[in-house]
Design goal:
Number of domains: 2
Helix content: 40-55%
Strand order of the largest sheet: 5-4-3-2-1-12
Number of helices: 17
Distance between the termini: 39 Å
Radius of gyration: 24 Å
Length: about 500
């Protein structure tokens, strides 16, 4: 049986992890990440592999348990799962994230430290930082990816966000974790000189962000007028066949006074039926838009009837003065496709949703256009992938993301989602128009700052002028690779130094 002291040593990382959520939107207490990360580092700094792994798992359970527990809302409220089953599925999701990402990071740290007999706190701090950033990055691709709660997002709206167009969000994570662990190293080191010197370098990096924030990496070309519609259609009614006409009337009614705009945007799946079923309506809307020299961009499910194997896509259509379409590439597990489909179909309603059998769109798709401007478009979840978003943004002057966050009710999930979307504007130096079903619909400038918005759970029209930008930020050209290589170097250098000793 564990002693109270031993039990507390296991609970402390879990409690620290549970506080991570407070650093992100809507709370934005980003300074908390320094003592939180330092707590995890100090708690596993000299532990055995087994103990460190369990503590890492506890930290991950706390972090994801508080930070992404909003998935319970979609499983219970819209998946019709009983509360107990919804709680169990949410817990399984949280455990999977903790076991796949945080526990292996702690395991790797302890394994390498023990194998090299690494006793220097500053070396341990560097290695911990490199491993943390690499495992954060792994969340963008491992198990299809779930890059939520990346530490760098918390520096948005601070003077230190200036590194984002240079390094991307992982560079900001790197700075936070390095600072936290070196502070801890200074506290516990017997010989503090090296740790203090390294900490002084991190202070310089923090200060360098301030002039970087003033650099205009991209330049304005022109402005285009737009109107984005927020219909605020309840999720329980959205796919109800008896409510389809009301949905159409809502968006058409909002648009009637806006046809003079260069660009009109309806959110994800604004039309809740397949493309083949809506050709007549789309034709009518397209003719009105074309007559007004306007382009209507809207979200709807697309069925590809040109192939023998019928496929379904989550899509964006552009009709009117310019035409085109974009098919979503990054699909949401369980929401848009079902992993282990043969075993899970029929278990609960969530796994039988009408839109949970989508296919992935091709990687190299022609960009949408409006008013002579190439537009990069993201559908919902796609905007949370930093390198994917930056790559897609090349060759365009404006970003658009459409979403339907109604699935997550009044939880903090949609607010976190909006924070990540704003980071994409900052990383790419481009304006972003975000159109959602029930909020937050917003215009974000090239510095990631909100220009205007419609709050959640309101019907309305967001209109304004979006500035078209040209040029690439350093992050768009190089992606996350410089930060990833530096993180790898922070693992190899202390390891090499220890071996030589």
């Amino acid at each position: 049986m564990l002693s109270p002291k031993k039990l507390f040593s296991y609970l402390l990382p879990a409690l620290a992890g549970a506080l991570v959520t407070l650093a992100f939107a809507p709370y934005n207490l980003w300074l908390l990440l320094l003592p939180i990360t330092a707590t995890l580092f100090l708690s596993i700094r000299t532990d055995t592999v087994k103990v460190a792994t369990f503590k890492g798992l506890g930290f991950g359970l706390g972090m994801f348990g508080s930070g992404v527990s909003w998935v319970y809302v979609s499983i219970h409220q819209f998946g019709s799962a009983p509360p107990v089953l919804a709680a169990l599925l949410t817990a399984a999701f949280v455990f999977t994230l903790a076991a796949a990402f945080i526990a292996p990071m702690a395991y790797s740290y302890s394994r390498i430290r023990g194998a090299l007999n690494m006793n220097s706190a500053w070396q341990q701090a560097l290695m911990f930082t490199g491993l943390w950033v690499l495992f954060e990055w792994s969340r963008t691709w491992l198990l299809t990816g779930f890059p939520w709660l990346l530490q760098g997002y918390t520096l948005l709206d601070t003077p230190f966000q200036g590194w984002a167009p240079v390094t991307g969000v992982f560079g900001l994570s790197f700075l936070l974790v390095l600072t936290a662990t070196l502070l801890a190293a200074v506290i516990v080191s017997e010989r503090k000189r090296t740790a203090v010197s390294l900490l002084a370098i991190t202070v310089v990096l923090w200060l360098a962000a301030i002039p970087l924030n003033k650099i205009q990496w991209t330049k304005p070309v022109k402005e285009i007028s737009f109107s984005a519609m927020q219909g605020n259609i309840s999720q329980s009614l959205k796919w109800d066949p008896n409510h389809v006409q009301k949905t159409i009337s809502t968006y058409y009614g909002l648009t009637q006074s806006e046809w003079q705009q260069d660009l009109i945007i309806w959110p994800e799946n604004a039309l809740p039926f397949f493309y083949s079923e809506g050709t007549q309506l789309l034709g009518q809307l397209g003719r009105i838009a074309e007559a007004n020299e306007s382009t209507l961009i809207l979200g709807m499910p697309v069925d590809d009837t040109d192939t023998e194997d019928l496929r379904y896509y989550n899509g964006i259509l552009a009709i009117g003065a310019t035409e085109g379409r974009y098919l979503k590439q990054k699909l949401v597990p369980f929401g848009e496709y079902v992993p282990l489909e043969s075993a899970l179909r029929g278990l609960i309603n969530l796994f039988d949703l009408p839109m949970s059998a989508f296919s992935k769109g091709q990687h190299d798709q022609i960009k949408l256009k409006a008013a002579g401007t190439s537009i990069t478009s993201y559908i919902c979840y796609e905007v949370v992938y930093p390198d994917f978003a930056a790559e897609q943004a090349r060759g365009s002057g404006l970003l658009i993301t459409i979403s339907n966050d109604t699935w997550f009710g009044k939880s903090i999930g949609p607010i976190q989602h909006y924070q990540m979307a704003r980071m994409r504007s900052l990383e790419t130096g481009r304006y972003l128009i975000r159109a959602t079903n029930d909020g937050i619909t917003a215009l974000v400038n090239n510095k990631g700052q909100e220009v205007s918005r419609i709050d959640r759970f309101k019907e309305g029209i967001l209109k304004g002028n979006a500035v078209v930008m040209e040029g690439n930020t350093p992050f768009m050209n190089l992606g996350s690779w410089p930060v990833l290589l530096l993180s790898l170097l922070l693992i190899l250098l202390p390891a090499g130094f220890t071996r030589r000793q």
